[in-house]
Amino acid sequence: MEVVARFVADLRKKNILSSNLSVASTAAIGVLILLALRYPDRAIFTEHREGVPHDKGLPLVGQLFSLLKNKYRIHDFQAEKFVKTMSVLGLPRGVMTIDPRNVEHVLKTNFENYVKSNWFNYCTEHLLGHGIFNANGAQWRWQRKAASLIFNVKNFRDQFTETFSVFIDEIEILCSETLDKAVVSGDAVDIHDHMFRFTLDSFVYLGFGVQLNALKTKGEVTFAASFDACQLYSFEKFMNPLIEFTSVIDRILHPRKKTMKQHIATVDQFAADVISKRRTELANGEVHTDLLSRFMSAKNENDEPLNDKELRDVVLNFIIAGRDTTAQALSWTFYCLANAPEVEEKLFKEIKDYIKDEKKMDSTELYETIKNMTYSHAVFYEVLRLYPSVPNNQKYAINDDVLPDGTKIRKGDTVSWSPYGTARSKNVWGLDAASFNPERWITPEGDLRRESQGKWSVFHGGPRVCLGQNLATLEALVAIIFLVKRYKFTMLPNQNITYETSLTHPMKNGLKVKVEKRA
Ligand code: HEM
Q: Does ipTM exceed 0.85?
């Protein structure tokens, strides 16, 4: 305290503090100075972690400003920092890792110890509610069980003809409504936007029996725009402890912009319409076996049928799962192919060798053929490796633990991992980690290589592994194969292709391409 008193006296001497400075404010400054001496390079009340390299920041706020400065390139920022711990005022304390052994431990080996945190819940609840992505324990288990009935191998096989033809029909709509016209007119096409429309139409029809026709809609799809805004807001909450304040400023600066409340009302209304349409159909004696009807006949953790709020959460959680992830993976695929002509050539050759005339093949034949197209799978896996649809993720430790690399985890820590960062680590993926190289997925025998869930965690792992992995791979390969076979896409010059920081991994400015028909 003597140090503080001397400091304040010094300020007085220099007339920096007025003589009537209250005792209270002197004490407050004193406390702040003491705290700054105690936490000179990290957020207040953050202790150094034994054995965990610490990234130095400013007194009391830690890395807050550096995080805010880098929030638009957050995945690269984290990839640069990822073997460390960062302390940020206002964000939960935690440890970050890109070590596949640690990731596998958190997802699988010690699954019971790592859950979705209250913080995750706070950041995503306005959109996800208590849906499968935001649930733990019994609340997660009944949702997983209900959804598994749809995605299990038997059901997938029984229903796949219909599933397959939905993907093919939607691709045909994309071709006739947009791509063939662009070939003739020479107009550029935003392939990112159209991939979102393709997966939205396909998934909403398959999952809920609703024909949305986003591919036929000119201009913005209102629901999709609001859904995206809600996701951006979630990510902003993860990154920005000043969100309540910055949102007010944003509202003042952009008074005409749709508010978050209005965006939420739009997505809620969409879900309500889907549910009420299905209730009417059921009342009229229609029989459905899709995702929505499975959940409508499921029971929640209290053994009760789901109410409208629970069904709303189901609809919105599954749209994020079924629309965004696959659309992004497809968009990044066309970006990677446009920048790697030798890969595109090889892919095109495999497609020509296997698919002579797609219009003459029935669903079963097409499915069996696609399953054997090793190079097409390798391209898709490599795109997901470099541009994972969920680029970073986190869980909350219920109890103390030790990660396989020796890092001590304390009860209440957040453990974050970054599939995006792991992909770029030379220690994990070798010297060419950052290059787009589908060959890495092919074994010397010519088979598709399998990687551990810790090293390639793009579909998550352990008991919460992605339920739609097979569906997504099939959908993406149908789209890639049909489109690459028919068209050559060339990127327009001078585009700034980068990601939007969000819960998933969209492109920020889309991807504009010129479309030519292949001979
Ligand atoms: C390329 C496409 C896809 C990728 C990269 C992907 C990736 C992931 C990831 C990383 C998770 C874990 C998220 C978390 O932290 O909770 C996840 C979970 C999940 N995914 Fe996917 N996904 C894809 C497509 C799909 C599709 C098409 C569906 C089907 C609707 C789907 C259904 C689910 C479900 C239901 C979960 C929750 C699992 C649970 O918590 O038990 N996914 N996915």
A: yes
